[in-house]
Structure prediction request, 318 residues.
Amino acid sequence: MSQLADKAKGDKLVGEVLAGSIRTASRLISRAEACDSSITPILKQLFCKAGDPVLLGITGPPGAGKSTLVNQLIQHYRKHDKCVAVLAVDPSSPFSGGAILGDRVRMNQHAADPGVFIRSMASRGQLGGLAKATGDALSILQAMNFDVIILETVGVGQSEVEIVRHASSVLVLQMPGAGDGVQSVKAGILEIGDIYAVNKSDLPGADKLVTSLREMLQLSSKMHPWLPPVVAIQANTGAGIDRLVQHIGEHRDSIRSGGEVHASRARERVRYRVVEICRQLLNESVFSGAGVTDTQLSAIANHQQDPYTLAEKLVGVL
Prediction:
């Protein structure tokens, strides 16, 4: 009886999300962040109900102006009657572990707009510039009626390019004065971006950075037939935003037209998501200590047994 009740409750929540309930979506995202495995049946249904929104990831170094750019993009899309959702991954508070809501402060002007949903998620030490529950949150939002979903990273370094595994279009934001073009190569950003924007283009060195990025992309790009454009913008004034949005739309059209490059990338995103879910399930199983006895742990601690054999047994390799 309880199983039937749980299913009925789950179906009700699924229906509310599909009907566009922000409150229900927010609660489900909170449960995903809390690693509540009881929402898995709901996530399964919502994943198969996904729509076809623009799924734009924005990444770049801290201070490049990502949140200001997101704010401009929201304004642009709302002027064209597009509903927008934003997942802004913030640094974690060292005390509570929660998100420092910097992005909500910057985008506060959209708080009363029913066509805009902004959610800050805590990175909680997760590498890659994203939060652990990002994939689950996207499954929820993609099942709603949003035309555009923007995923903003916490600000990335040389190893944090995880966003390419979640977003169908990746926008890399750069700014002058943050190192020469070689730094871009070292950071791996020439391999992940579909569109590049140089913010604060009124500052010295901006033109040189734009030219440098274009030259390196022409030499190193493997995204054929799509050559990532480089756009000079000023996120604080909105200069260049219209042109940037045009390139976002062109990349979406390129995706829709098909091609093995885009199909392969889509498969890789799905492959990563499956592996990510497997990792979460294994973590829940292994770290719960299921099947591990004090005798086994003592034997390993005394170097009478090795930890590798026990680990293999726990994940079912042997």
